[in-house]
Design a protein that fits this description.
40% helix, 11 helices, 3-stranded antiparallel beta sheet, homodimer, 9-stranded mixed beta sheet, BirA Bifunctional Protein, domain 2, alpha+beta
Chain lengths: 336, 336
């Protein structure tokens, strides 16, 4: 007799879980479509080269890739997708003449990561992605955040907060503090603020670069921490940021853009008490270049973001020479 | 620049294809649910042992299995599912105390087969399966066929014909013709009737067993061919089969059962002109033991069945000692 278990990190979903999931997915599809997004589907299996191209995924994600081989196939040639952004980039490079750009698409499907099961994470989970490709408009930025709000509300998710930032503000502040070139290290430390506390982050920032720190001065470290900690709250935290960093051109543009997005959101009917600003929010190191979003269920912040995304400058540079800016977000079905 | 193509046998689905697909899937879910079926989901990745257990899949299917490995994982341990029947068997063995039996479930998802791409087949395709586990009832048999009818009709599939058989009739006829023990070879030849014609099948049946034939006498070969060819048509072909093989106990039971199923279908509102009997229909060699279904779109028969299934005696014998008879069908979304 064969043991009917599934491999670690994988799951069977029983009717008690699946029935509400199908209801939620249906409201998501209806919401995405109501904003003019159309569905596409890409294969679960991609060519390895597509998934591992420079900048396609973080080192961590690439280490977790599942390779796929069949009898007679060449090992190392195929793999399971680890997200739906890289396949979207490949898709739009391949099909842009057929679908036209700007292109608003959604895609719902499983992605796969060979996490160490000990971490209690799933190796297969469902993402609900929607993106607007080929526009630099603030309206698309605001629409993306509004769709997060409308989707979660339609799915009857408990009260949640949509935190926004614009990466230009953060980058401008780092620039003004003389920290350009250390962005990655600083952001990596800032990301640990909730875990290791202010003093821990200060110590890490001050540690020399050759010991894995950012090697910044005490003054710089305090400056960036004050900026990140003081930058959490209602949209009026932007006023303080403007007073401090408004003379930096990049920061000033970011502040103006974020104010526009928030104005559009409020005008679009998203309640002000659902909107927060978090100037330390980066959402990954390299990828995003403009607005970024993160959504947490009130009181369940420690479970992480249920919907996040942002604006990128150039989606598909691995696959086409045409610059394709865009904005998008991903809702994690398994976190709802 | 990386070539944005997909590997051979895989596809991107553009909005023009996806929009009707999503509409169809929605009508399927609604139809399945209206008959009391609940959704489940199993992982795309199963343990290799589960997929390759004796009787889990045909040799052909097992040769096409996609193995899955991640860094640090053990090669040969995991694989992509090639259908949703084996995962259902594993699921019900594992969860029967939670979900209860009889259990009516549907599952919609991708399955993977490493077909040689030259054949023009897809290596990833979507199946829409529904099964009733844990009952020997004719009502479940008829309900399964009725759901095929209702689903395809709701999805506005062009006029189609639902061909039915009961494997007991075919097995009984082979028994009466003295062909027990040669069932596999005979059915394999019969399956080629459309391709190689009556004379081709006769020659193959008569060829000695050690040359890959069935080694049956001319009289036996003619008998089984007459049975299969004469057994295609409206339900009254059962009268001729009864006259010829009604004295065989197994065939007689099959004829009675199939008549009951057809009566139930017609009483349930399935138009008589959509129902056909095909006494040569086997749908695979070992698996089915009672009623079998196959559905073709009128005028497009050469593209094969769009929805098929049947009754099995014991679904999950690989995984549990509890006998679980059932009946189910699978609609091939990519064939609609």
């Amino acid at each position: 007799m064969i043991d009917p278990r599934v491999a670690s990190g994988l799951r069977d979903l029983l009717p008690a879980v699946m029935i509400p999931r199908e209801r939620i997915l249906r409201t998501f599809r209806e919401t995405f479509a109501s904003f003019g997004f159309v569905p596409i589907e890409t294969p679960h299996i991609e060519r390895m080269e597509v998934l591992t191209g420079k900048g396609a995924g973080s080192d961590e994600v690439l280490r977790q890739i599942f390779e796929v081989t069949n009898k007679g196939g060449t090992p190392g040639e195929l793999a399971l997708r680890f997200d739906m952004t890289v396949p979207l980039a490949r898709f739009i490079a391949r099909h842009m003449d057929e679908v036209g750009v700007p292109f608003k698409r959604y895609a719902i499907g499983s992605v796969f990561r060979g996490e160490r099961p000990a971490k209690g994470r799933f190796r297969e989970f469902v993402q609900c992605d929607f993106d607007t490709i080929g526009t630099d408009s603030r309206l698309a930025d605001a629409e993306t955040a509004q769709i997060i709000y409308e989707s979660l509300t339609a799915a009857e998710v408990p009260p949640f907060t949509l935190a926004l930032n614009d990466r230009k503000i953060l980058d401008g502040a780092l620039e003004a503090l003389g920290l350009t070139g250390k962005t990655d290290l600083v952001l990596r430390s800032l990301d640990k603020l909730n875990k290791i506390g202010r003093d821990g982050v200060l110590a890490e920032l001050a540690r020399p670069a050759d010991s894995g720190g950012a090697g910044v001065s005490d003054e710089q470290a305090a400056g960036i921490l004050d900026f990140a900690e003081g930058g959490r709250g209602k949209p009026d935290v932007l006023d303080a940021a403007e007073a401090r960093f408004g003379s930096n051109e990049r920061a000033a543009r970011g502040i103006a853009d974020l104010r526009t997005v928030i104005r559009l959101l409020e005008a679009g009917g998203v309640p002000a008490d659902r909107i927060a600003v978090d100037l330390g929010l980066a959402r990954g190191l390299d990828y995003y270049t403009g607005v970024v979003f993160e959504t947490t269920v009130d009181g369940w912040e420690r479970f992480g973001s249920v919907a996040s995304g942002g604006r990128y400058d150039d989606l598909a540079s691995l696959f086409t020479s045409r610059r394709l800016p865009g904005v998008g977000a991903s809702i994690g079905l398994d976190r709802l």
